[in-house]
Design a protein that fits this description.
Shape of chain B: globular
Helix content of chain C: 25-40%
Structural class of chain B: alpha/beta
Structural class of chain C: alpha/beta
Helix content of chain B: 25-40%
Largest sheet of chain B: 7 strands, mixed
Order of helices and strands of chain B: HHEHHHEHEHEHEHEEEEEHHEHEEEH
Oligomer: heterotrimer
Strand content of chain C: 5-15%
Order of helices and strands of chain C: HHHHEHEHEHEHEHEEEEHHEHHEEHHH
Chains: A alpha+beta (131), B alpha/beta (445), C alpha/beta (497)
Shape of chain C: globular
Distance between the termini of chain B: 58 Å
Largest interface: B-C, 213 and 211 residues
Number of helices of chain B: 13
Distance between the termini of chain C: 26 Å
Largest sheet of chain C: 7 strands, mixed
Strand order of the largest sheet of chain C: 1-7-6-5-4-2-3
Number of strands of chain B: 14
Amino acid sequence: MAAEESYPADLRYHREHDWARIEGDEATLGITWFAADALGDIVHFEAPDEGSTATKDASYGEVESVKAVSDVIAPLSGEIVAVNQAVVSAPETINEDPYGDGWLVRIRLADPSEADALLDVVAYRKVLDEQ
Amino acid sequence: MSAARYLSLTAADREEMLAAIGVEQVTGLFEQVPRGVRLGRELDLEPALSEQEIVDHLSALAGRNVGTERELSFLGGGIYDHYVPAIVDMVLSRGELLTAYTPYQPEVSQGVLQAIFEYQTVICELTGMDVSNASGYDGTTVAADAAFIARHATGRTKVVLAETLNPQARQVVKTYAPGFGLEVVEVPHDGGVIDPDRLAAASVGAAAVFFQQPNFFGCLEPAPELASAAAEAGALPVAHVDPLSLGLLEAPGNYGAAIAIGEGQGAGNHMSFGGPHYGFLAARADLIRRMPGRIVGETTDVQGRRGYVLTLQTREQHIRREKATSNITTNQTLLALGGLVYLSWLGPQGLRELGETCMGLVQYARHRLGHPLAFPDQATFKEIAIRVGRPARDVIAAARERGVNPGYALGRDYEGMDDVLLVCVTEKRSPGDIDRLAEVLEDVA
Amino acid sequence: MKLIFEKSRPGRTAFSLPRHDLPAPQMPESLRRERPPRLPELAEPEIVRHFTELSTRNYGVDTGFYPLGSCTMKHNPRVNERVAALQGFRDLHPNQVEEGAQGALELMWRLQEILAEIAGLDAVSLQPAAGSQGELTGLMLMRAYFEDRGETRRKVFIPDTAHGTNPASVTMAGYEVVGVSTDPRGNVDLDELRAKVDEETVGLMLTNPSTLGLFDEGIEEIQRIFHDAGALLYYDGANLNAVCGISRPGDMGFDVVHFNLHKTFSQPHGGGGPGGGPIAVRSNLEPYLPVPTVARDGDRFRWHDARPKSIGRVRAFGGPFGVFVRSYAYLRAYGPQLREMSETAVLNANYLLARLRDDYELPYDRLCMHEFVVSARALKREHGVTALDVAKRLIDHGFHPPTVYFPLVVPEALMIEPTETEAKETLDAFADAMADIAREAVDDPEALKHAPTNAVVGRLDEVKAARRVVVRYGFEEHPDLGGEASEPVTADAPKGV
């Protein structure tokens, strides 16, 4: 069952429809409800290797529906310390719970100050309104 | 009108249709073509022919070829004169299958989709691999496909080809390699087969290592050891196999090949002067998202009934475009269907007996032909290389004057082998035919 | 319907082989297969019924109207099958010496000559196996040409209406894709080209008419822009059926063209192939052609492989010869009047367009060539009915659906190519069905969501197929080889199960 539209206020957002939950020197990353909904039923998450590096504004993986592929853009840079294997084996989790069980990776932040350039929920909603 | 037989409009239809469009003449439809690029004359082609004249003209051309119905042929070298049973031609002439295209609309394409699913299963069974695609162009282009898979799966930039791999397959890989950013290294044979130690040395840093079983000389390679040598270097072992050998010879998936490829022609296609045939490509499960071309998967419909669809299409060019795993779209479905029908006709018992028949005949030829073997230490499957003591091409010309085509001149592909003839025997040849070959060769070589 | 493996019974056979009473062959035990492959075990009657039943669950041009855009699903003349099966062609080994293959070589030489004339270009290679391999071969020729001139270029321009094969081929050739937009009339945006084409430019890949079914009105200026930059033009022949004998790619300024023998020249599509993708080139690219081609010396025909600058071989032997026989037979049926084929294809398309324009949105309102694109955007906006719904309902009306959701520049696209071989009554019946569906979208949009209702299966769950990948039969789950399938093994299962 796909989730209802929502954008939690405690997250930081990237305009390519990605979110980050920053906790100390680590962050959990995922895609927003909008991105998941636009793709439709997600059937595959092409995950990066643990230990590889995510670079802000660059792709670190792909999510696929039956008829489309979308790059997943890193909102922040850092080493990938965990990949959500539950999503790899059950990609529909992204549709069902994009901000909870549907998280994609955890990174160790390379430069915490990068977060200053991210959007808060109000600013991200403005991006969505422009779509 | 010349070919009106293929057009269905009457003069009255044309008038009505032009009126509905709102133009006076057909030429009015072409105003969008700038005058500067219009042809403005008739095409300079020979006059149109009636159907009967087409049959006469093409029969005359066909009559100037000497096929296996007109000479006793021992030609092999990648394409083989195996018997094609009547049911293959029968199934392939069914219009619903023959005149359909790629099954983009599964509800009206279950026939082709299920056939491809069955084909994929048969190829996986033959090769011992986990997944097969719906076919590639032929046994050479699937080698390039495998190189592309390996390039991206390993990130490495070198492929190693055994010199005993089909020369045309090697040439195709070399044609594609620069675009893939790949360097190609070839490993020479020792006495007709590849030495595993020599292969291991060449495999360091390679993305893939290609070998052929049975190899181009017909010899049986130490395939399990070659696969191990490649795998130990971190390269993907790619086995190019004769599908009809796989009733007797171990399946590549069972000795560690990452990818199995091959030419399907011998299994259910007529030789047809080189095509169309089908190339098969099967791989380990972990490579499925790097596979080129169509793959059919099982699913269910809205009522829970089993059905088949094209699946994992995000690999393909129409979705992933410049990041696709291949540019292939049209493949060789009809020929692969011929393969499925043929292998269903043969069954496991027929496959084994056919292999035994070919091997038995080649063993007979080995003893019966008076000429020395080029590779006396090697067992072979359905071909043997013999030294005829003078240029093989001269021997071929002389033998053909006596109604026997004695084989393929290996000097066309290998230096220092101008006097070597590659003789192929399939189940369509008999011991008596081999006796005849021996007599003719005694006379001319 | 059961799979052939579910009809299999141990010990049942269909094959027969000659017996030669030879001693059992010796072979190294280390290479012997341990477990036989589980091929189907059936007698001939059940094999024939199995594949006949499969054929009844499929729709071909022989079944009915198949307006699949950019695929040119025309009638496949049966005389072509008869001549391709002549023993002198069918049973000819490709390693036969030239003296024993003069008729085959002559046919190939004649086909090369005909294709050169249709293309308006100088030399032909028949070798590429299909259109996309023709594309890649053409790009390799460009690469060889520039390398020979000591130029390093890397950008290939591709319009947003192009088939996906074009960008995929560019990557496989080791080049980079530069996208180009379509202008409001459906032509390539010339200003964008003028701004972007430079000394790094390899060339342009263009389908003309485009996948919108429109002839590019700026073609003369396009060729000036590229040739002035020293770049080359590639013609994707997928839509050649529109212009044979009317306008030749060579005269439009193209340097390389591929033909789709299975589209334009009636090779049956075979459920997905075989195809044929010969290429024709201007003389400056001839030295790089794949080997071998066929040459003529007086009355004799021979392989020509003495091309030191050749890119090499792209496929085995001279190409898919059986396809050449069919296409050659087809071309000889038309002769110089081939133009009538294209004229009729364009007439049929424009008539169908005229019949549909009241019910469906037309994104580019011009006369079309051999195909056209309409949009179901308004139906979706107002009634929630998509292009896919329209396509599926057409099945219930007895038609094969058109190409949908392509080209990507048109939302809810339905790309319709009737071809020249259809009768006016067929076009009218299809137009009536499309009108019915447009009405149904207003009156009962929910019903369209359930289409098709009279096919052998309903809409299939593609999401399930992609998430739970089952790409071969699961023998392990059916030890009795009995009834309908339950859960076959998945591709992700560990090896050796």
